[in-house]
Amino acid sequence: MHEMAFVRNVVDIVVEEADVPDVAEVRAVHIVIGEGRDIVEDFFESLFRYLARGTVAEQAEVILYRTPYMVRCKRCGFIFHVNVFDRESLACPVCKAYREYKLVSGLEFYISKIEVAGKEPSESQIPSPEGQLASVPAGDETGQAKQEGTATA
Amino acid sequence: MNESRMIEVKRNILADNDRAADVFREARKAEGTFFIDVMASPGAGKTTLLLALIEQLRAHATCGVIEADLESEVDALKIKEAGVSSVELNTRGVCHVEMGMVEKALAAFGELRFDYLFLENIGNLVCPAEFDTGAHVRVMLLSVPEGYDKVYKYPPMFAVVDALIVTKSDYLSLNPDFDMDALYRQARVLNPDLDIFVVSARTGQGIDEFAAWVRSCRETAMV
Questions:
Q1: Do both A74 and A60 map to the same domain?
Q2: Which domain holds residue B100?
Q3: How many domains does chain A have?
Q4: How close, in Å, is residue B213 to chain A by CA atoms?
Q5: A82 exposure class (CB count in 10 Å sphere: 0-12, 13-18, 19+)
Q6: Residue B1 lies inside a defined structural domain of this protein
Q7: What's the CA gap between B196 and B184, in Å, rounded?
Q8: Average pLDDT, chain A
Q9: Strongest mean pLDDT among A130-134, B93-97, B209-213
């Protein structure tokens, strides 16, 4: 049950990445997890729901992609998938070298992207007759307002 | 609400821990400390193996042990009784060790520094595999009484370690179902270069060979 340690980091990263003036909320978080990572997907999503409360990501859907174990043949360089329960799969499909490979994929664990929704024009950058200079502090303030707004939502 | 757009993130979820682990590894190397993470299920014989290994190493080197457990000082006291410096790291329910904990444990040794520093990780074949602890090498133990089939049940742990130590080999005669060939074969499916040792801390079988491997890893890592 080490998911808490991971999800805490996920929420921190997502909130940091979404800290852009015109972002109103995060709609989805796309996460890549290797087959070799022991992650309980149901825990992951419910913990995210819990830890993201009051943040810009509290409504976000968590989309997990599992990547398979892939190895690179030491003889010919071909990259192929191994199934740990299928001995046949341990031979390189190209040069037939058996068990002569190095693991190159299957332990990934990263946030690939987030899907965000922008603010309505009225609540984000206001085209101001005062011009570009005035929009810089206004943008900062909007960023603040956005966080406070979702915290109370 | 406006339409959605994607923001590319591509950030490792454990980046903070991994960065801290790299810094720790380099710092230990700079002061000549070789750091080994020892992982296994509860009761596999981590403490007993460490005592047998340290007995071999201590004639020519200094050793220290970080004993990680959910609760109690039982293991740290056992190590201290053998005259070896030890710090107990109680995680109070946390199933793994993270870098913040390792840093605190090292600080608890004060000015003491060692040629070999061991982390006896939490007894668990799942969670510790996921966290870099700043060690130069990671090893796992599988005891004969546990059964060879654990290799099928916990593949990630077998995939991330540098060596597998099959402990309590003196029980092999009592456990004829222990299929050593199958264990070797399966353990190397995801980790073809895995070094495997068969040892018994009780009889001393294989301890010399394992100690020689540890010494040679230190030489390689300290270059």
A1: no
A2: 15-221
A3: 2
A4: 21
A5: buried
A6: no
A7: 8
A8: 82
A9: B209-213
Residue written as token pair 């997907």: A41
CA B175/CA B7 separation, integer angstroms: 56
- Indicate if A98 and A136 belong to the same structural domain: no
- What is the tens place of the pLDDT at every residue in B163-196? 999 999 999 999 999 999 999 999 999 999 999 9
- Inter-CA distances, A36 with A2, A33, A82, B153, Å: 15, 8, 12, 12
CATH code for the domain of A59: 3.30.2320.50
Note whether B7 contacts A17, CB cutoff 8 Å: yes
Nearest Cβ partner of A82 from B5, B8, B189? Answer: B189
Alpha helices in chain B (DSSP H): 15-30, 46-57, 74-81, 99-108, 150-153, 155-160, 180-187, 207-221
Q: Dmax of chain B from CA atoms? A: 71
Paired tokens of B8:
């590319």
User: In this model, does residue A23 exceed pLDDT 60?
Assistant: yes
ipTM of the complex: 0.81
Q: What is the mean pLDDT of residues B32-61?
A: 96
Task: Give the closest of A24, A101, A106 to B1, CB-based.
Answer: A24
Q: Is A123 a residue whose pLDDT tops 60?
A: no
> Which residue of chain B comes nearest to A81, CA vs CA?
B190
User: What residues of chain A, 4 to 33, have a C-beta less than 8 Å from chain B?
Assistant: 5-6, 9-10, 13-14, 17-18, 20, 24-25, 27-28, 31
Tally the C-alpha atoms within 13 A of residue B138's C-alpha that lie toward its C-beta.
Answer: 21
Q: In terms of C-beta density within 10 A (0-12 exposed, 13-18 middle, 19 or more buried), how is residue B150 classed? A: buried
Tell me, yes or no, whether A51 and A11 share the same domain.
Answer: yes
State how far residue B151 is from chain A, nearest Cα, in angstroms. Answer: 10
